[in-house]
Amino acid sequence: MDTKELVTIEILREPMALAEVFVQSGMFPDLKTQCQAVVKIIAGQEYGLTPLQSITELYMVNGKVAMSAKLIAAAIKKSEKYDYHIDIMDSETCTISFYQNKEKIGESTFTIKDAAKAGIVNKDVWKNYPKQMLFARAVSIGGRSFCPDVITAYTPEEAEETIVVPAATKTISITEEGEVTDNPDYHPKHPDDK
């Protein structure tokens, strides 16, 4: 066995031991194998995460590393270079201002209308937790836009949307007044209609 092989084995020893514990505990249903856990732990090391943070806050979706919104927000706050402030957070809108060295560099807004346009507002998580989902989108988009040296990952929901999914059986519409409706009888008027 050459030196390179010995170094590789030594580097993997701790992640493999921890991964086995995480899988065998049965507490993490998304982990099916020791190898999946090792990949999450090693990916987390790239971001400076502990093994437990890697297991609970990182997701592998469609071959991409995805971070929880909580982890994205924490990484920005932990950074000595960046910060953010929530300007608006309700069930319709989330606006977050981003700062670099205490100077505002931009803002990220995500609205329920944006979610409707993206075709995601009908998901149960959006119906049950709209404020949190709007925050997740605003912080992840803003983080990638204004703090790219700290945040490169998507949230799991964003990474999941990169695949083609069949059309939903129930759709929503946006009225002329900007209201979101799931009324199947509502059909927006075309400007040429009288």
Shape summary: globular
**Termini separation:** 82 Å
Q: Please state roughly what percent of the residues sit in beta strands, choosing from under 5%, 5-15%, 15-25%, 25-35%, 35-45% or over 45%.
A: 15-25%
Helical percent range?
Answer: 40-55%
Mean pLDDT metric:
83
Instruction: State the strand order across the main sheet.
Output: 3-4-5
What is the total number of structural domains?
2
User: What's the total helix number?
Assistant: 8
Q: Give the number of DSSP strands.
A: 7
Largest sheet: 3 strands, antiparallel
Describe this structure in words.
The protein has a three-stranded antiparallel sheet with strand order 3-4-5. Strands 1-2 form a two-stranded antiparallel sheet. Strand 1 (58-61) and strand 2 form a beta hairpin. The chain is built from eight helices and seven strands; from the N terminus they run αααββαβββααααββ. The chain has helices at residues 3-25, 34-46, 51-57, 69-78, 112-118, 124-128, 130-146, 156-160; strands spanning 58-61, 64-67, 82-89, 93-100, 103-111, 173-174, 180-181. By secondary structure, the protein is an alpha+beta fold. The chain folds into two domains: 1-61, no CATH class; 68-194, no CATH class. The chain starts with a helix and ends in a 13-residue tail after the last strand.
